[in-house]
Design goal:
Layout: H1 13-36, H2 43-55, E1 57-59, H3 60-67, H4 71-83, E2 87-91, E3 99-103, H5 105-125, H6 131-146
Antiparallel strand pairs: 1-3, 2-3
Helix pairs in contact: 2-4, 2-5
Length: 150
């Protein structure tokens, strides 16, 4: 090409969706970190705690599959949550190879406090969305989660 200029390929609409999700992901990661930092957590650690609270008891393999985190990263997060006394780790009575995770009272208190902060921030950030916008977004995000692929 003349002058060393390269021609940029136009992004498809699907690529625009993914780029927007990546940008939003970065924004939400930074914001999430600010919300939970007072509890010695980062956003990913809080998401793991949230999933444990939501399930009451979950094994570590289920956690990895549900959250789409790397197994090694999940193990590090579980160790940190245990160290903070936010979760308990027990072996399954039926199968000693299975590690079961549950939330402690301390972890549940921390989760509740963080959720109050998240809910307040979410209400402010998303206040301009209608109920229909919110319902549609939830549906679309669920569809994207279902087709995540590997």
């Amino acid at each position: 090409m003349k002058g060393g200029k390269t021609r940029m390929k136009k992004s498809s609409d699907k690529t625009k969706i993914v780029i927007s999700l990546l940008r939003l992901g970065s924004f939400l990661y930074r914001t999430g970190n600010r919300i939970v930092k007072d509890y010695d957590l980062n956003q990913q650690q809080f998401i793991v705690l949230n999933e444990i609270v939501r399930n009451k008891v979950i094994n570590q393999q289920q956690l990895v599959a549900e959250l789409l985190y790397e197994k090694s990263n999940t193990s590090k997060i579980v160790k940190k949550l245990k160290l903070l006394e936010y979760i308990e780790i027990k072996k399954s009575e039926d199968d000693g190879r299975i590690t079961l995770l549950s939330c402690t009272d301390k972890g549940f208190r921390v989760w509740n406090e963080c959720m109050e902060k998240y809910n307040s921030w979410n209400d402010e950030w998303l206040k301009s969305l209608s109920k229909t916008d919110i319902s549609d977004t939830i549906r679309i995000l669920k569809n994207l989660e279902d087709i995540k692929g590997d």
